[in-house]
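Progress against Task 2.4 (sequence-to-structure conversion) is shown through the following example record, which the project officer requested during the mid-term review.
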Amino acid sequence: VDHHHGWWGASRHALTVGFVSTMVFAIGQRVLPAFAGMKLLFSKRLMFTCLVLLSTGCALRVTGQVVAYEGIAALGWKLLPLSAIIEMTAVSVFAANMAATFFSKPPHQVKAIA
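Structure tokens generated for the chain above:
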């Protein structure tokens, strides 16, 4: 079935980005702030956005790679760069959220407003 390595490449991408990167993002949002002085995550919405973008980009990449490399449809070649942009946006959002978390004060140093 895999005449031009579309399935093989898509399966590698699904494993590395679809599983490993999603796992790193999902666990990293909890572990990294703890290592940075028990800080709270800057934004849960940004983290959710990052995970949605990563999953969407990965799904487009896996689908596009099979469709393009196996010669099923030319549309696959247009999906590949779009998936890369979406996935890199996800990585950038994750990095920005972590940077904002690291530069914020730990909750025990913030004065309560009464």
